[in-house]
Design brief:
The structure holds two protein chains of two kinds.
Chain A: H1 2-22, H2 27-39, E1 44-50, H3 56-64, E2 81-85, E3 90-95, E4 101-103, E5 106-108, E6 111-113, E7 124-131, E8 139-143, H4 152-161, E9 178-183, H5 188-197, E10 210-214, H6 227-240, H7 242-245, E11 251-253, H8 256-263, H9 267-278, H10 281-287, H11 291-296, H12 317-340, H13 346-357, H14 359-371, H15 374-393, H16 398-409, H17 411-424, H18 431-440, H19 448-452, H20 460-479, H21 485-508
Parallel strand pairs in A: 1-8, 1-9, 2-7, 9-10, 10-11
Antiparallel strand pairs in A: 2-8, 3-4, 3-7, 5-6
Helix pairs in contact in A: 1-2, 1-15, 1-16, 2-15, 3-8, 8-12, 8-13, 9-12, 15-16, 17-21, 20-21
Chain B: H1 4-17, H2 23-37, E1 41-46, H3 53-61, E2 78-82, E3 87-93, E4 105-110, H4 115-119, E5 133-138, E6 147-151, H5 161-169, E7 175-181, H6 188-200, E8 203-209, H7 217-231, E9 236-239, H8 242-251, H9 254-260, H10 262-308, H11 313-331, H12 336-373, H13 381-415, H14 436-439, H15 453-478, H16 486-572, H17 575-601
Classes of the chains: A alpha/beta, B alpha/beta.
Chain lengths: 515, 621
């Protein structure tokens, strides 16, 4: 469907250019619209939001693969911080008034240190961190202060960023194209926030640009080694919960700390863990019963354990403290048992940790839900922005009609809307048909293979047969007199999606089908 | 806490009183005894969900009484108390919303293993079985002092209905433990909750759980103490680890037990919470015994004086008559305390009612604003209805807590009229939480059916037909032969479309109006129910206070009357009779003095008996 998405982007571009023309005499508005135009070509902006201490910065570090966002036991992130790809590390402070100013780039223990250089947090609009990283090339990540903070001003900054603060106009478009929402468990405040972000405006596409993450999954069940398993079960329950389905695309359990540390594991950390793992099992288990015990054990330095011999030096308290900060008690339990089971090198341990943290699943979901829809989400954001400006400036004229036409005509947006509708409420479809409809509409991925539920290497004839079969099935559904009006509408959009798949397949002939 | 000592004193006093044929005083002591026997010290364990509340209760008791899960678990409050053998029962209100004074409950005994099915979200999602609470009795010495631990469902945001129920239960609790894990400092809703709890509950403690998991827990403790100080809340912070405690219970490891932080929490419960309630109980006993023996002794002493000095008996009689008149006056309806009470209750009724209506009106206003600005209410009805219900629940519980505070204050005002009794013992005031919210019908959703396709087609047709008719007619004028001509058909399409658009707008505004009416009706219903509940409760409180104070006035009057009669008899008695009676009186006074001394001995001792100390040793589950 790349061709049509391209058309949509072009349409958004045209609309924005026309809007800039219309506001030629208002430099501020025209400048803002120009920014929106540039934004179309920028990487996708994904904001990471959640309650205080949900582990937003930790997850951001895990996604980047480097410790770029400062983390702390207390409430830490106080201003909205953008992380974008750049040639050289650079930090820029954008104050609420005045010119942006550069901040020094310093690292401590491998982690980036951000110092506002005396500027009070309330005078900072945002921080811009440019960092050379492969992982930031396709997406710009935005770290936000937590909601439900005791410091009300911190929470407000986040709400304002998302355009959800009570004094703001409800239709103010948000700066982010998509949101990863972190929660430890779904609280009332979380649901409220999610529904406030589910935007109103023209392209009503609730939940389409939000993924919920059950963060700090390693802490469930008191940090038992099987905690991640329990966490996945809980994520699964949320995924099918109608209340949550209406608010977000997907729910994934991620152990942020394990993921972050796994991706930034250092040699000496591995060495220390290996030393720990060499101790007798019962002894280590007793040490790992609590953080205090772990820190107090062998404070003297050398091991008491004669079996390990004099050559094996103990792990001193300072190292233990560092390990705790990086791994958490669950991480140490997991790592030592992984090393015992044969993860013999830092690389192997790192891979195991990342695999168990659930980060891979999150990345996959991010890719299908956001990455593949990048242009679509971008175009949608741009159209929303243009629409809001035109409505408030009153110079709408023919342009508003044009936007309406684009929004109503683009099948991708119709798909998004329909997906949102399917998630939000009951539709008179049988369960299997509902699942198929969601898949065909591109819920699991925009590629033809994903939509048809076939393996990625399926051959063209097979794809075509499947697409024809689906098309026929849904045309039958569409004529089923037992289905109501809403269901008929679903069928119509799904049929159109099937036609799109067939069209793409036809176009790709005789080359290898797919996207 | 040891209730045997006060009980012995009350029993001794009862034995003495039995000789005087004073059923009123006898009754008073019997009530005091009953209070001692089934006095419970209720400790509420509250907090957001998944903070380890159930584990904390299990750790405190040293037995797996509350089921725990990785996922959201507790759905029904569980009361854990002492019992000789393990017993589990589920309790359900039969007529929620009825008069709280005469509430009937259903109680079903179940096997201990079945508890999890009924109190957990997994077996009983959202408490659809409708239990009001579960009662678990376990033979644990920790609970023997009358301690009752209440494990509550996680509030999941203070404004939620669970949160409101928890708030409503606060005034009835002797202590509140706010459970929050060491992963993070307090959030705004938690601090808000603490503030409210501190205003109605005598003991508020903050328990920081899972300290075995978080290396930075000491910093979190410091941060939390800072937050508490900033908010002006007096509450101790206890960092604990249920996992360590549990391991310690299993292994009998005293060192691990110390590390778990539980001994300190237990000693707080014993020293502060139980100790305080014990002090109160002892003070109550001493007060009752002294008051009763005073009245008996007063009579005896007057008689003694009259027997010794018959000449001065007339003066004595005059003084007695005056005193008796005062006592009678106190008993009368017109007594000043009665006025204070009646006026106070009337004021209270008006104030509480006003407060409730004011809060509810504000909610209606906000809801209407929301509705007018929010487009079609049918689309967001579920969230909207949930929001209204939350706001209403919050307002009702805030109103309830305020009412409770005012009632306590009023009771003290009334007590001041009985100036002789400075530390007047107030009767237990009713504060059963209102169940009004549950008995109110849910909000009706605005009708969504009329926008069906057929309906729309009809509406479109109607408009189209009009268009065709109008323009078709024009067409016939300008020369088209038929009514159905191109001009007419074009007009039909345009007007049909316009009519559908108009119809949609009309439907939306119709639904907005319906939603407004539904909200108003719901808020009215709740206001009505809650107001009725609070009026009933106030009436019950008024009755309790009146009965209490009237009984006291009655006792005083009767004692004075008997003194008077005794003095009159003394004047008439012969010398030998007089001597014999004097000897009797002296013995009786001595007996009374013995009981009084015993009663006084209850107080100066340190409140918590030293015997409770060694019980801190771990008890294996």
């Amino acid at each position: 469907m790349t061709a049509t998405t391209g058309q949509l982007s072009a349409a958004a571009r045209r609309v924005l250019s026309l809007a800039i023309d219309a506001h030629r005499d208002q430099p501020a508005t025209a400048g803002w619209l120009h920014g929106q135009l540039l934004r179309l070509d920028e990487p996708l902006r994904v904001a990471i939001a959640g309650k205080v201490k949900a582990g937003k910065s930790t997850l951001l570090n895990a996604l980047v693969g480097e410790q770029v966002a400062p983390t702390d036991a207390g409430e830490c992130t106080r201003v909205v911080t953008w992380y974008a790809d750049g040639h050289t590390p650079r930090i820029t402070l954008h104050p609420t008034e005045g010119e942006p100013s550069p901040l020094p780039v310093r690292r401590r223990d491998g982690a980036l240190v951000i110092d506002l250089a005396g500027t009070p947090a309330e005078r900072v609009d945002r921080l811009m961190v440019h960092w050379p990283s492969q992982n930031l090339r396709a997406t710009t990540l935005i770290d936000t202060p937590g909601i439900a903070s005791v410091t009300a001003e911190n929470s407000r900054r986040t709400l304002r960023f998302f355009g959800a603060a009570p004094d703001l106009d409800e239709d103010t478009p948000t700066e982010a194209d998509a949101v990863v929402y972190l929660m430890r468990h779904l609280h009332a405040a979380d649901a409220e926030f999610l529904s406030s972000f589910a935007d109103r405006g023209v392209a009503r596409a609730t939940a389409i640009n939000t993924i919920a993450v059950l963060s700090r999954a390693d802490e469930i069940g008191g940090g038992r080694v099987d905690a991640m398993f329990a966490a996945r079960g809980i994520a699964q329950r949320y995924r099918v919960d109608p209340a949550v389905r209406g608010l977000c695309q997907n729910v994934v359990a991620v152990a942020g700390l394990i993921a972050e540390t796994g991706r930034t594991l250092r040699q000496q950390e591995f060495a220390a863990l290996a030393t720990l793992a060499s101790a007798p099992r019962a002894e280590l288990e007793a040490e790992l019963r609590s953080v205090d015990r772990f820190l107090a054990a062998h404070a003297g330095g050398a091991r008491r354990d004669p079996a390990a011999g004099d050559a094996a030096p103990g792990v001193d308290t300072a190292t233990r403290r560092r390990l705790l900060a990086r791994f958490g008690i669950f991480g140490i339990r997991l790592s030592t048992s992984l090393i015992r089971q044969g993860a013999g090198s830092p690389a192997a341990l790192s891979a195991e940790l990342v695999a168990r943290s659930g980060l891979g699943e999150l990345q996959r979901v991010l890719h299908t839900q956001f990455g593949q829809r990048r242009d679509l989400l971008k175009a949608r954001s741009a159209l929303l922005a243009a629409d809001s400006v035109l409505r408030t400036s009153g110079r709408a004229g023919a342009l508003l009609g044009e936007i309406e036409r684009v929004l109503a005509g683009a099948h991708e947006l119709a798909e998004l809307r329909m997906l949102a509708a399917l998630r939000a409420g009951p539709v008179g479809l049988p369960r299997e048909a509902l699942a198929e409809a969601e898949r065909l509409l591109g819920d699991a991925g925009a590629a033809a293979t994903d939509r048809l539920g076939l393996p990625a290497d399926a051959a063209a004839p097979e794809l075509r047969d499947a697409a024809f079969a689906a098309h026929g099935r849904w045309q039958q559904h569409a004529t089923n007199p037992l289905f109501g009006r809403a269901t008929a509408e679903v069928c119509r959009v799904v049929i159109r999606s099937c036609e799109g798949i067939l069209d793409d397949l036809h176009r790709a002939e005789p080359a290898r089908p797919g996207r | 806490m040891n209730r045997n000592e006060p009980l012995a004193v009350v029993d001794a006093a009862l034995a003495v009183v039995a000789r005087y044929e004073r059923p009123d005083l006898d009754e008073r002591l019997r009530q005091a005894r009953a209070r001692l026997v089934d006095d419970r010290v209720r400790v509420l364990v509250v907090g957001e969900f998944k903070q380890g509340k159930s584990l904390l209760v299990n750790g405190l008791v040293g037995a797996p009484v509350c089921p725990t899960f990785d996922d959201v678990a507790t759905a029904v409050p569980t009361r854990v108390r002492h019992a000789e053998t393990v017993s589990v029962a589920l309790v359900r209100d039969l007529d929620p919303g009825g008069d709280p004074a005469a509430r009937r409950t259903e109680r079903i005994e179940i096997a201990a293993a079945e508890l999890a099915e009924h109190v957990c979200e997994q077996g009983n999602p959202g408490n659809r079985e409708g239990w009001s609470h579960a009662e678990v009795g376990v033979p644990r010495p920790v609970l023997a002092g009358g301690l009752e631990l209440v494990d509550t469902p996680g509030v999941g945001g203070l404004q939620s209905v669970h949160g409101a129920a928890t708030l409503a239960a606060l005034p009835g609790a002797d202590a509140v433990l706010l459970v929050s894990d060491a992963a993070q400092e307090y959030t705004a809703p938690e601090l808000d909750f603490l503030q409210r709890a501190a205003s109605v509950c005598p003991n508020v403690a903050c328990v920081l759980t899972k300290i075995d998991l978080y290396p930075e827990w000491r910093r979190i403790v410091e941060l939390d103490r800072g937050h508490l100080a900033t908010a002006g809340i007096r509450g101790e912070v206890f960092p604990v680890s249920s996992a360590l405690r549990w391991q310690a219970v299993l292994d009998g490891d005293a060192e691990l037990n110390t590390e778990s932080g539980f001994p300190e929490l237990l000693s707080y419960l014993r020293r502060r919470v139980l100790g305080q309630s014990d002090r109160l109980a002892r003070r109550g006993v001493v007060h009752d015994v002294l008051a009763v023996t005073d009245q008996l002794g007063g009579k005896l002493r007057t008689e003694q004086a009259a027997q010794q000095n018959p000449q001065e008996a007339q003066q004595l009689l005059a003084a007695l008559t005056a005193a008796q008149e005062r006592a009678v006056a106190l008993r009368e309806r017109s007594a000043r305390w009665q006025q204070t009470l009646n006026d106070g209750v009337a004021d209270l009724n008006a104030d509480i009612d006003y407060d409730l209506r004011d809060r509810m009106r504000e909610i209606s206003r906000m809801a209407e604003e929301e509705l007018l600005g929010g487009g079609d209410p049918a689309k967001v009805w579920d969230q909207f209805a949930a929001w209204v219900q939350q706001e209403v629940a919050g307002a009702a519980s805030a109103n309830f807590i305020w009412a409770t505070q005012r009632v306590r204050w009023l009771a003290q005002q009334v007590a001041e009229h009985f100036a002789g009794d400075r530390d007047q013992l107030l009767p237990a005031l009713r504060n059963d939480p209102s169940d009004a919210l549950r008995s109110v019908r849910a909000m009706a959703a605005p009708d969504d059916s009329s926008s069906g396709l057929a309906n729309k087609a009809l509406t479109g047709l109607r408009g189209g037909y009009m268009g065709m008719l109008m323009f078709g007619m024009i067409g016939t004028f300008v020369g088209f032969a038929s009514l159905i001509n191109p001009l007419g058909i074009g007009a039909a399409v345009v007007m049909g479309g316009k009519t559908i658009g108009d119809e949609r707008k009309r439907l939306v505004s119709k639904r907005q109006n319906e939603a407004k009416v539904a909200v108003r009706r719901y808020v009215d219903d709740v206001t009505f129910q809650v107001a009725k509940d609070s009026r009933d409760r106030l009436r019950a409180v008024q009755r309790d206070l009146r009965d209490h104070f009237t009984a006291q006035a009655e006792q005083m009057k009767r004692s004075l009357q008997e003194s008077q009669q005794a003095a009159e008899r003394a004047v008439k008695a012969s010398r030998s009779e007089r001597e014999a009676r004097l000897a009797e009186i002296t013995t009786a006074l001595q007996q009374l003095e013995v009981v009084r001394r015993q009663a006084r001995a209850l107080l100066p001792q340190p409140a918590a008996p030293a015997a409770a100390g060694p019980q801190q040793v771990v008890r294996a589950g």
